[in-house]
Structures are given as structure tokens and as C-alpha cells.
Amino acid sequence: MAKIQAEYLWLDGYSPTANLRSKTKVLDAPPTSLTDIPEWGFDGSSTRQAEGKSSDCLLKPVAFFNDPIRGSNNILVMCEVLNADGSAHISNTRARLRQVAEKYAAHDAWFGIEQEYVLMQDGRPLGWPSTGYPAPQGDYYTGVGAANVAGRELIEAHTEACLQANLSICGTNAEVMLGQWEFQVGPVGPLAVGDELWVARWLLQRLGEDYDITVNLDAKPIKGDWNGSGAHTNISTAATRAEGGMAVIEAMCEKLGKFHEQHMQVYGANNHERLTGHHETCSIHEFRYGISHRGASIRIPMGTANAGKGYFEDRRPAANMDPYQVVTAVLETICGDGFQP
Ligand code: ADP
Ligand code: MN
Ligand code: MN
Ligand code: MN
């Protein structure tokens, strides 16, 4: 069988917001399972993951997907970063989630994440005039027509790529600011939602190269009366999905309120610029939950309230959050004694 290309993806050591990195390894044959994919290494001194003198870091494959860009039998490989001795590298936020997910596996938690982002070109949001501003927000959210949307070709290519990679992408929409978009993944388990979101982000950035468009995940890319970008995190467990789930959700919300500050520490950099109490957000200094309430920290969707069971939405995470850390925080608070960063 022909050799294939495997693109190894990992998170670098940049703080407070890690970047995706990747490089290509040629494998002798397509793998049939994870154990067929060899561990690999990279120079951690170039990614803020090591000092110059002993700079080798280890890449441990943890999930793999069809590579929709290269096609045929080529693959994308999500990796954890390990130290030379095999222990988890300090930048490896997935390692903690692995333990937490196992500890609370019996709760059967599912997550769905809404990734908002802004497409950029020539230093400004796609579709914006070279000087000044476009018409104020209003017509852009879920809009149609050349005056109201920018970048749809890339969004179509990205969605198709996610489907071909077998990611659980479940929808997309144009957002409130011109050039701003959203895709959603889930609902899937705690580790899968993180792996899939990182791979979907990688595909978006990678496809953006072909269009000369960059992807901005800042919490508040444009100051002023323009929407920030969030990563609403939707949550359910076996108990919230079962009869009587609404009472369980309310108890979870009360608990999440007690650990608001701890959660905010891992909900994305510069989130205070976004969580102002305007633009469908709740102030970062407050915690509120409510049915259908888009100005709350946590929204219980109408469908959940009507059915008396289902899922709820944590609206606080910013677009630049690390899903491994956010999911860890949520699990520790709703299933355990509360999250400590
Ligand atoms: P919104 O009305 O907030 O814009 P979206 O339709 O954009 O909602 O996103 C809904 C999200 O909820 C998706 O990411 C989806 O995967 C997730 N979701 C749906 N059902 C569940 C569930 N039972 N548990 C967890 N997440 C869920
Ligand atoms: Mn949404
Ligand atoms: Mn949205
Ligand atoms: Mn939402």
C-alpha cells in the first residue's frame, strides 16, 4: 500500500493563549488504529516548551481523523505534548482532562461548543471598508447577500472539510458583526469535544491560507459597539437529560455560580473586554442564570425548560479559550467539589 502523510497537531507553550502547531510525517501505510501511529518529537525551544539545551519534546498521538485537505488515505493526528521522560508537559492541558473525564465517566457528560471567530484580511475584518466602518450591526447576523456577508466561500469549504474529517460539526451561521461567523461541534464526550474543536480550528486556519484570510479568535477583536467572540459551551449529563433534569440543571447552575471566579481564570484571555453586560453578555463581575436569557452567564434554552430536561449553555467562555481547560472546569464543578485552576 502507498505511503501516506500524517499531519501531527499539538498546542504550543504560549501563554495565556496557546497556538496550534503542526508538521508532517510520512507513514509507510494508513493506520488502522491509534497504536499504528508512532510517537514523534519536535524542538520545544521554538514553541516556548523547552530551553535550548535539552529541547526535545514528545508528541503522543491521541486521536486521528481523515485529512480532508490532502484527501485519499492521509490523516490528521491530534497529539499531547510529553516531556522526554514520558510525563505530561506543563502546557499539556489535555492530560488533566483525561483524568477528570475518567473520574466522572459515569455521569456521561456531553458537550457542544459554539465557536465564534472573525475573518481578517489586510488588518481588518473581511468585508470592512479600507477606512472607517461598515454600516452598524443589524443586518449581518444570519444575513444573506453580498452587502451583508463576507467570506462565505471559506465557511462552505470549512464545513465540508469538517464533515469529511468526521468531526461532529452540527451547524454554522453568520454572526452579528460583518466578517464574524460561528460553527458548532457536538454533542460529544469531554475529550472528543476538545480534540474536535482544536482540529476544526486548525482546518479553518489552514483553509484560510488558500484564501489569504486569517482567523481571529480574540475575545473582543474590534473595540466599541461591535460584538465580541465567544465559545458558548453547552452541557448535559445523564441526569440533566433524564426526567427531573431541570432541577439537576438548577442545582448545577447554583454550584457554577459559587466557582465563577475560578472558572473565569480559564475561560479565555481578555474576556473582560467582551463580558461587559452589553452585546448579549453578562458582566464578568456578575453571575446569573435564566431561561432563554441571553444576558445571563448561563442560559437554559427554551427547549430544555419546556421538556423539563436536556442541556444548558455556559455563555461565558471566550472564543480564544482552550476547550480542554473549560471542560475540565465544568466537570469538576458540576460533578465534583468545584474547580480549582
Ligand atoms: P444557540 O441558540 O445558543 O446559538 P446553537 O444551535 O448555535 O445554539 O448551538 C447549540 C449547541 O448545543 C451545539 O454545539 C450542540 O452540539 C449543543 N448541544 C445540543 N444538544 C446537546 C446536549 N444534549 N448536550 C450538550 N450539548 C448539546
Ligand atoms: Mn449559536
Ligand atoms: Mn453565536
Ligand atoms: Mn449560544
Which small molecules are bound?
adenosine-5'-diphosphate, manganese (II) ion
Rg estimate, integer Å: 20 Å
CATH superfamily of the largest domain: Glutamine synthetase/guanido kinase, catalytic domain
CATH classification class of the largest domain: Alpha Beta
What is the CA-CA span between the terminal residues? 47 Å
Our count of helices gives 8
Provide the residue-averaged pLDDT. Answer: 97
Helix content: 25-40%
Which structural class matches the secondary elements?
alpha+beta
| Regions with little confidence, pLDDT below 50 for 5+ residues | none
> How much strand content do the residues show?
15-25%
Largest sheet: 9 strands, mixed
Number of strands: 14
CATH topology of the largest domain: Creatine Kinase, Chain A, domain 2
Bulk shape: globular
CATH architecture of the largest domain: 2-Layer Sandwich
Outline the structure in words:
- It is a single chain.
- By secondary structure, the protein is α+β, with helices and mostly antiparallel strands.
- The chain has 2 domains: 4-91, Glutamine synthetase, N-terminal domain (Ubiquitin-like (UB roll)), CATH 3.10.20; 102-334, Creatine Kinase, Chain A, domain 2, CATH 3.30.590.
- It is built from 8 helices and 14 strands.
- The protein has helices spanning 93-103, 152-164, 190-211, 238-241, 245-258, 260-264, 302-307, 323-335; strands at 4-11, 20-27, 40-43, 56-66, 75-82, 110-121, 124-125, 169-174, 180-188, 214-216, 233-236, 289-291, 298-300, 312-314.
- The strands form 2 sheets. Strands 6, 7, 8, 9, 10, 11, 12, 13 and 14 form a 9-stranded mixed sheet that branches. A 5-stranded mixed sheet has the order 2-1-5-4-3, covered by helices on one side.
- A hairpin with a 2-residue loop joins strand 6 and strand 7 (124-125).
- Helix 2 (152-164) crosses helix 3 (190-211) and helix 3 runs antiparallel to helix 8.
- It is globular, with a radius of gyration of 20 Å.
- 47% of the residues are buried.
- The mean pLDDT is 97.
- The protein binds adenosine-5'-diphosphate and manganese (II) ion (3 copies).
- Adenosine-5'-diphosphate is lined by residues 110-114, 170-171, 184, 186-187, 232, 234-236, 310-311, 313.
